[in-house]
Amino acid sequence: MLAFSLPSHAETLASALAKAYQYNQDLNASRAQLRATDENVTQARAGLRPRLSATSSASATRSQTTFGDDISTQDARQMSIGGGIQLDQTLFDGFQTPNNVSAAEAQVRASQFNLANTEQNILSDAATAYMNVLRDRQIAALRRQNLSFLQEQVRSARARFEVGEGTRTDVSQAEAEQALATALLNSALSQVAASEATYFNVIGDAPENLQPGKLPASLPNSVAQAYDVSQREHPAILATLASVDAASFQVKVAEGALLPTVSLQGRVNDTYSLNDSDGGNLPGVRDSGPQVTTQNQVSATVGAQISIPIYQGGAATSRIRQQKEVLGQRRIEVDGTRDQVRAAVATAWAQLKAARANIQGYTAQVRAAQLALNGVIEERNVGQRTTLDVLDAQGDVITAQILLVGSQRDEVVAGYALLSAMGRLSGGRLALAGPTYNPNDHYIEVEDKWYGLRTPDGR
Predict the structure, then answer these.
(1) What gap in Å lies between CA 301 and CA 265, rounded to an integer?
(2) Strand, coil or helix: what is 231?
(3) Kindly report the CA angle at 458 between 455 and 459, in degrees rounded to 5?
């Protein structure tokens, strides 16, 4: 038999981000929400489009007339069937429809920027989830190595105790550290499972053989540059600015309710009637028998209507004041969003600088702690150190290694957080594998669509 060893699939941070970009449920739900928002433009345009409706009717009437003292009766029956077409066309509505269209277009722009912001958050979460799994797996591996080292120390302490070179205290100290290392390893494995679950939720796939994460390209050289870029390009700020535009158009829509409205109506009706009458038996009149007559009537009506509002109970003016307050709220939100973005940039920049400094410090600490451990072990072997000294030195090594792993994770996460705070963490800028979602594709398909039940994707 021949055994073939297949290499396990290696997952990189870029491929994980590409999966999150394509398959994350929250991101795809936001895309669907944006596609629904696109339809508001078409609905707003319908305000000045013709409305055509068809009507039909059918009726049957029977009447009976008695003359004198039940001497004679006249029986008449009438059946009619009619149909028509009615056209309603608004010619002027106080500029409400054009302003509604402009407001809907501004809302679409705001939703597109909100989608871009959601995309940034998802990619940042994906990078964090990736690095968390990588960190926690490395910590678990370090905990496992530490447990193996302590198991060897327990065996060595027992061997020295048996030959009289050590004490029972040395054995107990080593066993205590071994038990603690076992508990810490179990906790680390539990944290790995939790991080892997978060990874699956964000990225949509189970983590395989994860490769070391790398910092994103095109990071700023200074925090001032990051501030400048974020204030110009961050989608959250651009979304609030688009919301200000939408609110300003809504003020104009409310003001349009005070202007006249001009509309045109046209109607064509065709009615077919069937009359059946029986003359009855009148005194001195010969009974002529049943008489059947038909009638077909076609009518056409065209009219124009002008409606001039005079007083509407204060509702129209109240809506105008209300929309002005909403506009003021949107302008205040712009300033608040700018401050939030600036704070996010400052935080991410500080975390990145701290992580880089910590990596240098912890790398030196790991190297020094390892040298110290090797020296303590040699000194313990010649009787100049105790088992407790070795255990303390090993604790310093494992602590420094865990801190180094955490700092390496923090550097990559802070780099992606900084790119997100600047507004430049997107699938297009990262050049992720797979197709790039363009929200304008759907908008162009539906913005001026006059009819149809199917969505652009065929549903």
Answers:
(1) 8
(2) helix
(3) 70
Give the residue ranges of DSSP H helices in 234-385: 235-256, 315-381
Query: What's the start-to-end Cα distance of the chain, in Å?
Result: 53
d(CA 15, CA 22): 11
Q: Which of 354, 331, 342 is nearest to 408 (CA)?
A: 354
Query: Contact 278/290 with Cβ under 8 angstroms?
Result: yes
pLDDT tens sequence for the chain (459 residues): 333 333 456 789 999 999 999 999 999 999 999 999 999 999 999 999 999 999 898 888 877 766 555 555 667 788 889 889 999 999 999 999 999 999 999 999 999 999 999 999 999 999 999 999 999 999 999 999 989 888 888 888 888 888 887 788 888 988 898 999 999 999 999 999 999 999 999 999 999 899 999 998 889 999 999 999 999 999 999 999 999 999 999 999 999 999 999 999 999 998 888 887 665 554 555 555 567 788 888 889 999 999 999 998 999 999 999 999 999 999 999 999 999 999 999 999 999 999 999 999 999 999 999 999 999 988 888 878 887 888 888 889 999 999 999 999 999 999 999 999 999 999 999 989 989 999 999 999 998 888 888 888 777
Q: Tokens for 304?
A: 């124009």
How do strand 209-210 and strand 261-278 relate by DSSP bridges? unpaired
SS3 156: helix
Strands (DSSP E) contained in 216-323 are: 261-278, 290-307
CA angle (47, 53, 58) in 5-degree steps = 155
Q: Compute the distance between CA of residue 366 and CA of residue 105 in angstroms, rounded to an integer.
A: 58
Sign of CA dihedral 392, 393, 394, 398: positive
Q: pTM (2 decimals)?
A: 0.85
* Contacts for 380 with CB less than 8 Å, ≥ 6 apart: 386, 387, 389, 390
